[in-house]
Amino acid sequence: MSTNVHDVMIIGAGLAGLTAAYVMRQHGISAIILEQEPEIGVSWQRRHPQLTLNTHRDLSTLPGARYPKGAGAFPKRDAVVRHLQAFAREHAFDIRHGVTVSSVTREDGGSFRIVSEAGEFHAAHVIMAVGRDTEKQLPAWDGLEHYDGDVRHAADFGNAQDYAGRSVLVVGGGNSGFDVLNHLSRVKTGPVWFSVRRGPSILPKRLFRFAVHRLSPLMQALPTPLVDRMIAATQHLAFGNLSRLGFPKGSHDAATRLVNDKIAIPVDDGAMAAIRSGQITVVRGVRSFERDAVILEDETRLTPDMVIVATGYGTSALTGEPVGSTPGLWHMGLTPSLTSFFRETEREATKIARSIAETPGRSLCAASDL
């Protein structure tokens, strides 16, 4: 096996990895992508079939690419998969499929050793592009391990029609919680409860038939406190006083939380109308579980057929340290923004490429040398 040290190894051939490979090439830097899945878009294909982007198609494309006619203003899951696959084919990146990376360590000479089931690789720079939704997170509720009911993470939501006639408790008022409710609002379920601890900051997908997200580049350029107020005003115009719908008091700090805590802003596409009509009931946060019931913070006992936990994700332990803490080890695709992950990853990749291009004594290695 060769020990040639290559310029860049990218781990992950999803949205972030493909963007990184494209931007590296634009800066004259060769890159090899290691991808554990057998083809492009598998992680998207695993997500529920109703999945639709909350970001407008004009702001949700890979660099220099477009969606075909008919994709819709907010592309669906399968359209995104086709978009990723077409981009990879067009640019013919060096993608090694079926390669699962187990460790990335710095060698004495300053380069990195990447260990995988397919052997070892060596590179001067490593870009971790494994995504931010790789590890499902469940709160450590008292009694959860003894609960006999059906509990699943929002990542395993599945087909919304499977919930017809069933009672459902959705826990978590963030982006994934509203996504689940948006889809359940179109199904004739049994009672649906929505458990939240704080009032959400939420934007409508459309307001007076206008796609609100199209204003995001303008909002991105404004001071964060001003954007907080703009989002609060838009929310009030669209939904009125949320406390009248049973929500706890909110803080109107959506943009601040996005910047500081990396918490994406939920988007309504039917959930709020279902709450207003009584199809969905807002309830307090979950306190604990019993064998046959869920106990809320106000002592309410619920016995749903299904509990869907929409409390977020963690990143893979392989991602290691934050960006910049280890020279040559880069992380991207982890930061939500007002525009989209597509736009943000291109910005991140450009910053990384410029830094790599300016590295003293850098020498290019062709991918065929490996």
CATH level-four homologous superfamily name of the largest domain = FAD/NAD(P)-binding domain
The mean pLDDT is 90
Second-tier CATH architecture of the largest domain: 3-Layer(bba) Sandwich
Largest sheet: 7 strands, mixed
Strand content: 15-25%
Number of helices: 9
The assembly state of the depicted protein chains is single chain
| SSE pattern, N- to C-terminal | EHEHHEEEEEEEHEEEEHHHEHEEEEEEEH
Describe the structure in your own words.
The chain is an alpha/beta fold and 370 residues long. It folds into two domains: 6-134 and 315-369, 3-Layer(bba) Sandwich (FAD/NAD(P)-binding domain); 136-313, FAD/NAD(P)-binding domain (3-Layer(bba) Sandwich). It is built from nine helices and 21 strands. Strands 1, 2, 3, 4, 5, 6 and 21 form a seven-stranded mixed β-sheet that branches. Helix 1 links the parallel strand 1 (6-11) and strand 2. Helix 1 (15-26) packs across helix 9. The chain is globular. The N and C termini lie close together (8 Å). Residues 319-324 and 363-370 have low confidence and may be disordered. Keywords: Oxidoreductase. This is NAD(P)/FAD-dependent oxidoreductase. GO terms for molecular function: flavin adenine dinucleotide binding; monooxygenase activity; NADP binding. It comes from Ferranicluibacter rubi. It holds the Pfam family Pyr_redox_3.
